[in-house]
Amino acid sequence: MAHSKLSLPVNRVAQIGGSGYSPAAMSDTSKVLYEGKAKQVLESADPQHYILHFKNSATAFNNKKKAELEGKGVVNQKISAKIFQYLQENGIASHYVKTLNDTDMLVKKVTIIPLEVVLRNTAAGSLCKRLGIKEKQELNPTLLEFYYKKDELEDPLVTEDHIRILGLATPSDLSEIKTVAHKINGLMITFFEKIGVKLVDFKLEFGRDDRGHLLLADEISPDGCRLWDMKTMEIMDKDRFRKDLGNVIESYNEIYRRLENS
Ligand SMILES: Nc1ncnc2c1ncn2[C@@H]1O[C@H](COP(=O)(O)OP(=O)(O)OP(=O)(O)O)[C@@H](O)[C@H]1O
Ligand SMILES: [Mg+2]
């Protein structure tokens, strides 16, 4: 797809700096196809699959705030893997194939639909800023928003008509995405409730494989979810980084610890 950064592997490899090899990834012979803010996408031995390498880099506010957080790659890979496995057991098709090591997973290659699909169960973040909605207000029914994945435009909120005009997805793609996204939301609410965590909101990305099947892709981790401890309302997600609350990775690790023991 014209909008997918992965449709331009040659440019991307050139941007990365020439060697085309990743020092961080599982295999030093895997070519880096795309260097993202939080992950690298690498070629795998099989043309149908990519290796997704989770980095320690943290960014916020459209890349204006940056840091390296030791252990982030490992914990985000582990949490994402657990969530993809749980969703697959519950009938949600995703790109996840298997975990290769602490920071790397094997995923099915997809053409990413250049939309961030955001589900909000409770008001927080940009929704409150933009519309003056009070933080912590419950949103019933769940609010679903689309954002255009376009760094140069700072990922703007788009309507279904904007999506149609830009040719990012068809109305039938959107209807399929919305149905799956709401199903994922229901499953994720239960998943986190069991470990005493409130799922405030989260971001999903979808893609299509070469047979045209819609697959949930990218990652689901505290980088792209708002997660509050149900008892204390303590923030356990990337807002700790955005708001300089400290103990970012400790909170991510606590999420994973609870998931492992659940
Ligand atoms: N299965 C997949 N097949 C192809 N591309 C994928 C797959 N899963 C995730 N991606 C893409 O790989 C990239 C992962 O890198 P990362 O999340 O660090 O990117 P980013 O810096 O956030 O940039 P972007 O704005 O593209 O999301 C993203 O562009 C994501 O859309
Ligand atoms: Mg990303």
The amount of beta strand, in percent, is 25-35%
Helicity, as a percent range? 25-40%
Going by CATH, the architecture of the largest domain would be 2-Layer Sandwich
Mean pLDDT: 91
The number of helical runs is 7
Largest sheet: 7 strands, antiparallel
Task: Explain what the structure shows.
The structure is a single chain. The protein has 262 residues and is an alpha+beta fold. The protein has 2 domains: 5-110, 2-Layer Sandwich (Phosphorylase Kinase, domain 1), CATH 3.30.200; 112-261, D-amino Acid Aminotransferase, Chain A, domain 1, CATH 3.30.470.20. Helix content is 31%, strand content 30%. The protein is built from 7 helices and 14 strands. Strands 8, 9, 10, 11, 12, 13 and 14 form a 7-stranded antiparallel sheet that branches. Strands 1-2-3-7-6 form a 5-stranded antiparallel sheet. Strands 4-5 form a two-stranded antiparallel ribbon. Strand 6 and strand 7 form a beta hairpin. The longest helix is centred in the C-terminal third of the chain and has 23 residues, at 171-193. It is globular and about 45 Å long. Bound molecules: adenosine-5'-triphosphate (ATP) and magnesium ion (MG). Adenosine-5'-triphosphate binds next to strand 2, strand 7 and strand 12.
